[in-house]
Specification:
By secondary structure, the chain is α+β, with helices and mostly antiparallel strands. It folds into 3 domains: 108 residues, Butyryl-Coa Dehydrogenase, subunit A, domain 1; 112 residues, Butyryl-CoA Dehydrogenase, subunit A, domain 2 (Beta Barrel); 145 residues, Butyryl-CoA Dehydrogenase, subunit A, domain 3 (Up-down Bundle). The strands form 3 sheets. The protein has a 4-stranded mixed sheet with strand order 1-4-5-8. A 4-stranded antiparallel sheet has the order 2-3-7-6, with no helix packed on it.
């Protein structure tokens, strides 16, 4: 077993780091204050081809695996940025790539790869369903060669900066004996949808341009359905595993951002005529979370490697997300403790990243549900929900 990244993977890390150097803390603080979308940063990543990392070369992408994609997102977060503005495109398009027709792939993937089309909006979560995706209520009724869709989505980010939305909707009644059935997935052209799809901004503690989405009599051509009717939930599950691996990478980037900052500050901050990092009460928590972060990284790499090899990765993807998100949150608190009052000052970027990394305790899946999954599906204990 080789635990070293390849020279090509290290080249990816360095290239992304170079882009991030042009977008320092001041840039992200301004976007956070203005609640603005980082247009310039997303454009730079697009020019570099990094948002097309998972798209095969035949469609204009780079054609690398989830492991390489995770390195891209990790480096963005370690550099002090936030990939939430663009990360969805990486895992959303996997549903199209794995389950779309060749005609659909040729119609959309080259434009997504070049940046002419942005697939950033993921219409899944609903106000009444919560984490039980099988209970969504948005309904798609087939009428001839099209579907008519009505319903509501919530926590749908980046709508205002997307050309396309991947939409999960119910195409038949809920069946207790087939909870994963009866749902279908569609690719929605948001320009053609017009006012049939309305995004209402939802203010949150982080700058993710999150929305409540109202869908009224939206007409979607049958050819925009991905895969078979009634199998949409199964299709997006594979994307969710990729998402959890990529989110784990973002958390690792956050954890390393906090560790880097805490170490530097602990070495340079002098109190009582000595650097505060000389005190075990400061030094040991940083060392402990460093060890935890390195351990979480190994699970991330295992999950990504198995995903890229075509294996089932439910346990590994969930464990990677859980361990990395816990590490990032502990690291955030350790860093805040190290900085003391200065950690609250906006200019140090600690409080912004502190708010941002807190999200991963509950999203894109709450850690409680991950533990429930591991307890039941992996360890064989009774289902707890």
């Amino acid at each position: 077993m080789n635990f070293d990244f390849t020279p090509e993977q290290e080249d990816i890390r360095r290239a992304v780091r170079e882009i991030c150097r042009d977008f320092p803390g001041e840039y992200w603080r301004q976007k956070d204050t203005e609640r603005a979308y980082p247009v310039e940063f997303v454009a730079a990543l697009t020019r570099g081809g990094w948002l097309a990392a998972l798209i095969p070369e035949i469609y204009g992408g780079i054609g690398v695996g989830v492991l390489e994609a995770s390195i891209i997102l990790e480096e963005i977060h370690r550099s002090g940025g936030n990939a939430a503005a663009c990360h969805a495109q990486m895992y959303i398009m996997g549903t199209l790539l794995r389950h779309g027709t060749e005609e659909q792939k040729r119609r959309y993937l080259p434009g997504i790869a070049s940046g002419q089309l942005r697939l950033q909006a993921f219409g899944v979560s609903e106000p009444n369903a919560g984490s039980d995706t099988t209970r969504i209520e948005t309904r798609a009724v087939r009428r001839g060669d099209e579907y008519v869709v009505n319903g509501q989505k919530i926590f749908t980010s980046r709508m205002q900066h997307s050309d396309l939305m991947l939409l999960l909707a119910r195409t038949s009644d809920y069946d207790e004996n087939d909870r994963a059935g009866n749902l279908s997935v569609f690719l929605v052209d948001l320009h053609e949808a017009g006012n049939r799809v309305k995004a209402v901004p939802l203010d949150t503690m982080v700058n993710h341009e999150t929305n409540v989405v109202h869908i009224e009599d939206l007409r979607i051509p049958v050819e925009n359905r991905i895969g078979e009717e009634g199998r949409g939930f199964r299709y997006i599950l594979g994307g969710m595993n990729a998402e959890r691996i990529l989110i784990a990478a973002e958390c690792l980037g956050d954890a390393r951002f906090f560790i880097d900052r805490a170490v530097a500050y602990a070495n340079e901050r002098i109190v009582f005529d000595r650097p505060i990092g000389q005190n075990q009460g400061v030094q040991f928590p940083i060392a402990a979370i460093y060890a935890q972060t390195e351990a979480a990284d190994l699970v991330r790499c295992k999950a990504a490697a198995r995903f890229d090899a075509g294996h089932e990765v439910g346990p590994e993807a969930n464990m990677a997300k859980y361990l990395a998100s816990v590490a990032s949150w502990v690291a955030a608190n350790v860093c805040m403790d190290t900085f003391g009052g200065y950690g609250m000052a906006v200019e140090y970027d600690i409080e912004r990243k502190f708010r941002e990394t807190r999200l991963y305790q509950v999203a894109p899946v709450t850690n409680h549900l991950i533990l429930a999954y591991l307890g039941n599906k992996v360890l064989g204990m009774p289902k707890s929900y």
